[in-house]
Amino acid sequence: MTFEWIQIAYAALTLFIVINYGLIMTAVVRKIGARVGGRYGIPVWQNYIDLVKNFALRSKISHGVMFYLGPVFRLTGGIGLLLFVPTIYGSVMFQNFSFAGDLILALYFIFFGTLGMALGAGESGHPLAAIGVSRGLAQVTAAELPLALAVFAISLQYQTLNITEIVAAQQGSIFNWTLFTNPVATVAAMFAFVGTMMRSPFDVVIAPQEIPIGPPTEYHSAYLALMQTNRVLFPVAKVVIYMNLFFGGATNWAEFSIKVFSIYMVSVLIGVVHPRFRVEQSIRFFLKWGLPVGVLAILMV
Amino acid sequence: MVSAIYIIATGLGAGFLIGLLKDDRKGDAFFLAVAALAAMAWISVSWTLALTAGVAEPQQIITAGVQPPFAINLRMGLAEAGLLSVITLTGLVSAFYLRPALMQLGRRAAAVLVILVMALSGLVLTRDVFNLFVFFELIVIATGGLVLLSNDKRAVAAGFKYLVVSQVISVLLLIGIIFTYHAQGSLNIDDIPAQPMAFTGAGLALFLVLIALVVELKPFPANGWALDIYEAAHPGFSALFSAASATTALYAADKLFAVAGPDWLPLATGLGLISFLGSNILALAQRSDRRLLGYSSVGQIGLVLVVLGQRDILGDAYLYVAGGILITHAIAKAGLFWLSGLVTGRDLADWAVLRANPVLVLAFASFVAMLLGLPPFAGFYAKWDLAHTLVAADRLPVLVLVLIGALIEAGYLFRWFGMAMKRKSAVAFPGFALDKVTAVIIAMVAGWGLGYIWGAAGAHPNLMLATPLAFALLFLVLEPLPAWAKNLLAIAGLLGWVALRYPDYDPLQLVFALVMLAGGAVILLASFHVRGRRLGFYPPAMLMYAGLAMLIDAQTSFQFFAAWEILTLGSYFLILRGQDSEPHALSYILFSLGGAFAILAGFALAAMGIQPFALVNLAAIAEAGLAIAPWVFVLLAVGFMTKTAAIGLHIWLPGAHAEAETDVSPMVSGILLKAGLFGLWLLLIYMGRQTLWGVDLTHVLVWIGALSAFLGAVLAIFQEDAKRLLAYSSISQMGYALFGLALMNHLGWLLALMFVINHFVYKSMLFLAVGGVKERTHTKLMYKMGGLITLMPFTFISVLVGIIAMSGVPPLSGFGGRWVFYNAIMASDLRLPMVLIFITGPIGFLYLFRLIHTIFLGQLKDEHRKLREAPFWIVLPQMLFVAFLIAFAVLPGMMLRRVDAYIATITGDQALTWSGRVITSEFGYWNPIAIAAVIGAIFVLVLALLLAINHNATRVKQFNIVFSAERPYKPQTTHFAWNFFAPYRKALGFLESPVVTTFWGALTDSLHASADFARRIYTGNGQTYALQVVAFVVAVYLIAMGGVS
Amino acid sequence: MYLVAMAAGFLLILMGLYGALTHRNILRMIVGFTLADSGVHLVLVAVGYLPGRTAPILDSAVPLDEAAQRIIDPVPQALVLTAIVIGLGITALMLAYAYRLFRTRKSLDIAEFTELKW
After folding, report:
1. Using an 8 Å Cβ cutoff, are B19 and B36 in contact?
2. Are C46 and C86 in contact (CB under 8 A)?
3. Which residues of C touch B224 (CB under 8 A)?
4. Domain residue spans in chain A?
5. Distance, in angstroms, between C49 CA and closest chain B CA?
6. What is the pTM of this model?
7. Boundaries of every domain in chain C
């Protein structure tokens, strides 16, 4: 895997597709939620409107350098996560920059945006932002644990940390997917998935329905626009990893869009039927239910 | 050569001559006494020199012109000459020390002093058992007289108790002597044939003589009378009583035990152990300085009695070992008693007044180190040889008990030293009398000199000639220089040493040398910020670095252990310098010494009496599959883990690191901890996997490492104190490194090595940063800070880079560590410990975020609005570290590749392939430069986008936030910082319960409580004491003789 | 006869020690020790005694060449002299102490002098 300049253009294309896909998909999900609840809901292009509006806002303030850089970190984290992972299996165009590192790079790069965002929100001096960060970080330690164990289990199973090789091993039949070859690991990973998608019951971190809390509290205008971009990009990038590791990856964009939507819907479906956990409750939940499954996964490999 | 009999003749003559003087000629009396003592000392010393040089032969002195046994004979050998030198010189110095008291009491006191020294000398010289009795009684009478020199009214009672017990002893002694004579027909010691210890008339007689001599040694628990003397007598006399009398009595016992035969030696061993352990435990409860010294004296004499009990196995080394401990003790104890005369208060904490004079502090430290057998003093060599001999002769239990006793002694001695260094002086500074200070200095110089002699005389390399140590000791002399000059020299010395040794290092040693020594030089840059002379900083710091340098170079177990103790000692003094570090420094030194003793036992067990024992021979032991191999492994591993603060042995670390000075914290955290890793590294390379009771010990280490990593991180997130947070984080990081090492595969070792480098860099950097903040804000509590980012931007940058590197977020070097880690665990067959490690990573992120958020972000406090950036010299090394971290992130190959190749030579496999910029393992790949480039490019693009739109954002003031349409204005209530991870505490707070602290606390508390309870046997009633002596004799008789027959 | 002396000596020692260890009055203790000392001296002499022999004085009654067979062992007798002298010295010193103790506290009860303890 060597680098050629054209890959930059390919990567930009991936990014463009995924951002648009994310903008529409998240709006569709909200729309579905509204219809199920008997409301009319937003138009599917609502995200575009919001984005344009925020970019166009004329009143903009800054609390300092880190505040300014926070959204930059955040979006860089989202884009990087997407681009360090091959999106479409077998396609030369959509391998992105996966030559830079393997699965471990992707897993650790998730923290990049989180850290930058948290720092930026911190500099605003708003206590609610800090409270959100504190909650989020506390929850993620427990929520990520089953995923870490599941990843360990499947990398032992496939004897590699190379994402492309893991996807390659799942080709041929639907029963070659990790979902079927290693269901325990998949279940463990899904605990983490649901826990980190910022949806109920694990969304006390940003508490979207009440007074604003969490990192976005003080952000507005283009800052918020960058964050919104990330809000649609990041979940997709994350789902791509799950898709590659557990659900056979995608060989074309159609398969990609179906799989990503389906996996995303898991967290949505769980979210709409469950009330919200407090942070310590979710920590206990993951340690009580997620952890044993994860441990089982690494012991069964 | 002047015959030794002139020692006695001079003493007697002077005694009588003084008696003839008129009452008012006190000055002349004093002069005569001093002259006599000087003459006696000169004879003794000249004999010692001549005998060691081989110029003279040992001399038999016959009195009355008749051969023994028909007349008393004396002997002057090397042992006698050495002890006589100690006795007479102590007498001489004490005479000067006692001068005011002697002048006050008149000429008779001077005469009694000379007679005492004469009698002590006679006791050493004589070979006649009845003559022994006579000199004993002379000593009793002289002691009875000299006790009265004290201003302390209680001394009279003490003297009387002493006389009462002496009467009992003399009855025993006389009956024993006469029946021994009856059985042997001779009073000459050399005519007493070896006696089996069975119940025969001769055996009983010998028993009485021996037990009388033992009781004379003030054995625990029949020694209340002696303690009273130590406490109440004039310190000048107590010095004599401890240094000379006790030494002499021991030698007298030695003479008799030597002829009594090997059957009797276990008696000496047993009584010695009881005495050593018992009085050391009881000393724990002491608050009075002189009484404490008394307990310590009793304990030390007990220790020599134990050595005496080993004379059958020590062989030729007997004099070296026993003499090393005995004479070191004599010098140190005399010095300490003389010191006590300079202190007006009698509480241990009153010794704080000594801080007025740095030389006295040095003396105090030296004496404590001498008593505990720390390098480079003579007791250290003796301790080492004793341990090896004991193990080789299968007397491991004796060694264990001795080490436990020594640890307890270290406990109260270092506690005392800590009080003297840190407590406020309750008494007004009295001004130090020059003659008394001189006496103390003489003792100190003698102790150092003795250390040199013992180093030169033994089979081991002389530590004082080791270049690093000599360089460190040089700083003692350079103390008057300004700090910057010393700092310059220290940095030059460290870098020079690395440059000098560089060609001989293998890559592993090179990494550790670069981290410990070159890295030490970088941290020392921060020390430039201190103005003035900074007394007491450079000698211990350089002592620590000397120990580290010697540790890296060590080839034999002796060198390794000596280096280990030197660095421990140096770092202890360094840690103790911190503001509130008294209790923490104490627990540090206790854990470290406990660990050092485990190492000592481990090495002794491995060597099985063979000296010198090359470290590589550990591999031979492991290969031979000896039954002791796993035990060696366990002992050494436990020893090393006290330094890396593995969980369970970690409670010293948070306080020690957090309370240390700004530039000391990174030294003891970033550098010192690596010494333990270095030891573990060698252990695992040489000994590999060991199995005990079917358990693979490396698996145990993996678990310990994982638990340390996890619990260290959990505890770190709950800290409010920034330095404590970093300290707990060190526990966690060292856990990672231990975990990696114990995986026992190529990548695990590489992982550990990356942790060595990375942890040094970012922990030093963070400690310096937090230290710099503390210099400005004068607090370490994070919730009292906030919003410092604009005031201290450089410090913020270093913390930011530090936490990115540490949390393993790409692109900085911490990620490399994680990547190697994943590859390492995939190559291992262990699964469950990984669970702990996996959860540790994100938790680490938690405490790091808290560190940066609560200090630099959030709301600025009113009192901090005028703060400036941290001092330049504290920021400078941080910026160097930042540059290094970024460079190391992009080009990890520079050092790792060499080390990787080196590890491959040990493990025999090639785990990583280095092609161009890409590092490939069996499982994955990693291209640091590509990562950095991609992230950098995306970041710049997004930033450019934001700038394009938002370049004209208005900078708003503090409190301009969305706050329910109100503005808070009060940073204290707006800065979310205290109990930052409250939900975490609710969920997992039980992990915070101080189980380990409670355990160790309960252990020490119960020791203290039992000491406080048990010491009530010393009722203060002279009659009870006498009764105790009788009961002691009967009990020993029943147990010892009953066991035989 | 010498056995009687020896027995008496031991009895004296025991009596003396018993007295010294039970009486709280300092002077009585000293007397007790003197008693014990005397017992020791008696034992010393008794050990040197050989039945049927004469005093170790070399004069016309005991020719030099037969001395070894005819006199009792002279060494214990020499020793006992020394022991007596030393015993005297110590007793004197103890009495001096008793005097000083009495002056400080106006008491001779050994149990009164326990400021130094533990």
Report:
1. no
2. no
3. 117
4. 6-300
5. 11
6. 0.91
7. 2-50+71-112
